[in-house]
Amino acid sequence: MIKKSMDEFIRNDREQELIQMVDTLAARFAKRAAKYDVEGSFPFENFADLKSAGYLKLTVPKEFGGDEISLYEMLLLQERLATGDGSTALAVGWHVGLMLNLRYTRSWPDGLYAEFCRNVVEKGTMLNNFASEPTTGSPTRGGRPATIAERVDGGWVITGRKTFSTLSPVLDQFVVTASIANEDSVGEFLVAKSEGVQVEETWDTLGMRGTGSHDLILQRAFVEDGKLLRRVVPGEKSLQDQLGNGWLLHIPACYLGIAFSARNFAVQFAKRHRPNSLQGSISELPHIQSQIGQMEAELRTARTLMYSIAERWDQDIENRPHFKTELGLVKYVATNSALSVVDKAMRIVGGLSLYRTLPLERMYRDVRAGLHNPPMDDAVIRDLAKTALSEA
């Protein structure tokens, strides 16, 4: 049997079993994707399926009942999930990625971390970190949060607005960054939904319409003592920086999955589409074969880079702090390659690709969101330039 190109990075039977589970989910999600996209609604049904399948606990440590899969394995699954529905894959990617990150940083108080992990395993609790704001933009740009945390008896009250709050419709708890009043520091707080917390449904976008990335409004939301996870002093390196943010590779994995799905659709279309001006299908035309070959080259290059860096990150623990440039490069290459692949798929299918009755139109919109996920292209290029100049 010829091994399909998407299976080339599966290394063992364990990974094959995980892939089979995710392929079943992806096929199910693909049937619902158009509905959620048109409505701009949150795919609660998909997340119920993820919970039932045990997907939400995959990156949780074994000591708390999780599967403790590696970064490499997480990317295999995230990429496959995105072939079914990019919005669902990107949204759940923040949860499984953050849980993988916490497994290494252990930046939360021990008891709170253990309790949360058990809730993920037993109840399907999910997590995301809300840091973006209207006035500061992406936290990767270094802006100080306008959200303010004030000390009160028994805890803290937090006031502010967070944007791009992915998963907000389904989360009961989430991490919020806030400037601590009367201090030159920023705190990360574990906030539970309460009367002081409101989700304003602002997410009406071109692509990734099912991620539920609404605005989160906090009006003196109370956070009890013990839920201040950590303080970060501006200019100091965080634990994430010290250990390397490998978990953020869930982002390029998602967009490569979308691109692979577009590639599959275009190739299948080319093999069966037979205009009456031709004796065979359009797959026999040189310019169509050229487009297909270019798609293959871009996908194989980006995927090889991503999985090789992920494998190194998993194995070379001591050097994880030095992976920043390579991790950024993976995101840059993968998202831009994904854009190019989907564009070529649209050209192969032609004008029919514009119809909403076909999935390519949605993929074309979804894949463009990758340009706006961290790290941004300009930051990656700047880091590469600084590295080259420092070595010259």
UniProtKB/TrEMBL annotation:
The keyword Oxidoreductase applies. Pfam families: Acyl-CoA_dh_1, Acyl-CoA_dh_M, Acyl-CoA_dh_N. It comes from the Bacteria. Keywords: FAD, Flavoprotein, Oxidoreductase. Residues 252-369 form the Acyl-CoA dehydrogenase/oxidase C-terminal domain. Its cofactor is FAD. Residues 13-100 form the Acyl-CoA dehydrogenase/oxidase N-terminal domain. InterPro entries: Acyl-CoA_Oxase/DH_mid-dom (IPR006091), Acyl-CoA_Oxase/DH_mid-dom_sf (IPR046373), AcylCo_DH-like_C (IPR036250), AcylCo_DH/oxidase_C (IPR009075), AcylCoA_DH/ox_N (IPR013786), AcylCoA_DH/ox_N_sf (IPR037069), AcylCoA_DH/oxidase_NM_dom_sf (IPR009100). Residues 131-219 form the Acyl-CoA oxidase/dehydrogenase middle domain. Belongs to the acyl-CoA dehydrogenase family. This is Acyl-CoA/acyl-ACP dehydrogenase. The lineage of its organism: Bacteria, Bacillati, Bacillota, Bacilli, Bacillales.
